[in-house]
């Protein structure tokens, strides 16, 4: 486009509802909305509320901000209906106006009093959404998520269109072919959205009386025919504007239903954008060890991925840029999927060059290929969260247990992302062992068991499924707790076990030169029983140690799914120990029964703190405090969680 071509566009943001997931304080909240293009163009918003009884929205022209109505939050899982629409209008004569992207900034504002002046509101959360190519027609759903101490989520749909293009040198319609093609694409996107709205209007009309239905159909048909006849005589930009105006008129009638359709599409496609960061290796458990996995875990392979020109190049139409998708800090998931022992197949690997992922070739027989296809297909299917009649007889309880020197806030972030996705589950973050993790693992396991039983009793829960998440030593404590007689009645309900870098085989073979001496000093001066147990030094011989006894209990076989997350960069917990993995000369793994076992190696980017990188703490802690890791994990492994 030339500089003399003027481009106008509208962006409509539908704020449907706000849901409290884990807000720190009770009080009054509002959401501030602002928008600017990547090139820096800003716009004064225009807004309205479709809910009767709502106060008028506040628009601050000085800061070009829109404020939703204020609402009071007092309880967890409180959901506030907003149903507000805010519109931004932009004009530009940039050469790349039609490819212009925008940033919508959402700020969660808090006050303890309902009538607090705007200038005194405190910003407690932020989410920036990047909307790509707003001039070419965008219609998308996105859950705006405020991460941190004030964890909340707002259901939002975003719609945009070019409304005018004209040549400023001449008082006539633009005729350039290239620009018209892009304008036609925008028009077609809006037409498809209008077709969906018209269908929803017709479905809504069928739910009213026959008389009202006939009147609505006649009116709709007349309007559509008139619109089509008129469109035939309009130029391209006029048709685009006409379609957009039709969309704006129909949206208030069936906007909520249309948002639901967009949400389903979002759920189906959201993990596609993680494909650059996710690699799967299939392993048959009775075959020879596949040492090509080492190439996947090696930092050189991660560097190769990060240095590729096409890495993270593709962006979704709407993307949360608050949680950065930066090649230097993007977590990479390298997954090893263990097939059951009864597969009569082999996997052969070419190990001639392990420097890059492209040099690893897998030859997979048909039955394994079909199984892998099934696994991957499940990940791309929309998870219907409506329970079946069988599920209605009980709840799915997720239990979280922190590790050494941890606290109840360690696993809060992962819990919040899970709760955002699965609102009908029950969540228990155990706090009974906080400040006591240097004690005996057995006594901590007993406290965890008592805490679980107490929670079930107090909340009057009928548990249908029971899943666990343990970080570091917490994963071992969970395994011991499940061997206690008091939890035996719940073993048939065990569903998913997730360990985040847990030392299942102890801490004998550390890759760090700093940590073992430090742990020895800590154990020596605190007389810690748990550290002694992790060193397999709590018995007269290894077979009398707690970890050996746990290995004989076979508790993990009771779960439907076992996910062992580790990081090759984590120097706190030995890599093989976190994966329950033997070396080449040791006994091979064998998976019996109907159990899905995943070993996932997560490689993070370069450490942000020098000390963390030096002592190997960086990856161990990123499993807890990285919003991007938590978001990716919940989305990539939904079939093991739902």
TrEMBL record:
Membership in a protein family: Belongs to the FAM135 family.
UniProt name for this protein: DUF676 domain-containing protein
Secretion signal span: none
The DUF676 domain, residue ranges: 394-584
Species per Swiss-Prot/TrEMBL record: Planoprotostelium fungivorum
Pfam families, alphabetized: DUF3657, DUF676
Domain of life: Eukaryota
Region (Disordered): 208-234
């Amino acid at each position: 486009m030339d500089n003399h071509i003027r481009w106008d566009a509208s962006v409509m943001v539908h704020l449907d509802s706000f849901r409290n997931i884990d807000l720190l304080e009770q009080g009054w909240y509002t959401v501030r909305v602002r928008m600017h293009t990547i090139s820096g163009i800003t716009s004064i918003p225009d807004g309205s509320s479709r809910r009767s009884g709502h106060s008028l929205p506040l628009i601050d022209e000085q800061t070009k901000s829109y404020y939703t109505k204020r609402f009071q939050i007092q309880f967890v899982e409180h959901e506030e209906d907003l149903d507000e629409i805010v519109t931004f209008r932009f004009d530009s004569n940039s050469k790349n106006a039609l490819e212009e992207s925008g940033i919508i900034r959402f700020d969660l504002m808090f006050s303890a009093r309902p009538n607090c002046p705007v200038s005194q509101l405190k910003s407690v959360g932020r989410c920036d959404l990047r909307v790509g190519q707003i001039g070419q027609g965008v219609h998308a759903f996105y859950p705006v998520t405020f991460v941190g101490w004030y964890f909340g989520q707002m259901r939002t749909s975003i719609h945009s269109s070019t409304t005018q293009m004209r040549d400023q040198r001449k008082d006539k319609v633009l005729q350039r072919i290239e620009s018209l093609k892009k304008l036609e694409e925008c028009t077609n996107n809006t037409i498809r959205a209008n077709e969906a709205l018209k269908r929803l209007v017709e479905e809504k009309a069928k739910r009213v009386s026959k008389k009202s239905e006939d009147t609505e159909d006649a009116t709709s048909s007349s309007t559509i025919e008139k619109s089509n006849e008129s469109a035939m005589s309009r130029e391209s930009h006029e048709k685009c504007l006409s379609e957009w105006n039709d969309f704006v008129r129909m949206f208030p009638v069936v906007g909520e239903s249309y948002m639901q359709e967009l949400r389903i599409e979002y759920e189906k496609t959201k993990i596609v954008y993680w494909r650059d960061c996710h690699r799967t290796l299939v392993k048959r458990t009775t075959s020879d060890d596949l040492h090509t996995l080492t190439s996947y875990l090696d930092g050189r392979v991660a560097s190769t991925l990060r240095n590729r020109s096409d890495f993270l190049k593709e962006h979704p139409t709407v993307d949360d840029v608050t949680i950065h998708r930066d090649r230097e800090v993007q977590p990479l998931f390298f997954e090893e999927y263990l097939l059951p022992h009864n597969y009569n197949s082999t996997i052969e690997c070419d190990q001639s060059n392990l420097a890059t992922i492209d040099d690893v070739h897998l030859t997979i027989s048909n039955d394994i290929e079909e199984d892998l296809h099934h696994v991957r297909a499940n990940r791309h299917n929309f998870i219907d969260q409506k329970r079946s009649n069988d599920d209605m007889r009980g709840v799915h309880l997720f239990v979280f247990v922190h590790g050494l020197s941890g606290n109840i806030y360690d696993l809060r972030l992962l819990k919040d992302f899970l709760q955002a996705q699965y609102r009908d589950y029950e969540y228990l973050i155990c706090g009974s062992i906080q400040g006591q993790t240097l004690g005996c693992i057995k006594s901590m396991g007993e406290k965890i068991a008592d805490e679980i039983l107490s929670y079930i009793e107090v909340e009057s829960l009928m548990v249908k499924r029971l899943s666990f998440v343990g970080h570091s030593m917490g994963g071992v404590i969970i395994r011991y707790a499940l061997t206690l007689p008091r939890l035996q009645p719940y073993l048939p309900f065990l569903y998913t076990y997730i360990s985040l870098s847990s030392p299942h085989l102890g801490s004998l073979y550390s890759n760090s030169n700093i940590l073992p001496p430090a742990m020895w000093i800590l154990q020596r001066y605190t007389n810690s029983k748990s550290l002694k147990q992790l060193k397999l030094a709590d018995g007269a011989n290894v077979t009398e140690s707690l970890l050996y006894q746990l290995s004989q209990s076979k508790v993990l076989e009771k779960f439907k799914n076992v996910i062992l997350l580790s990081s090759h960069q984590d120097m706190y917990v030995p890599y093989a120990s976190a994966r329950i993995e033997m070396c080449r000369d040791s006994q091979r793994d064998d998976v019996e029964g109907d159990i899905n076992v995943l070993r996932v190696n997560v490689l993070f980017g370069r450490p942000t703190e020098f000390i963390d990188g030096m002592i190997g703490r960086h990856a161990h802690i990123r499993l807890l405090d990285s919003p991007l890791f938590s978001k990716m994990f919940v989305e990539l492994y939904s079939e093991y969680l739902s």
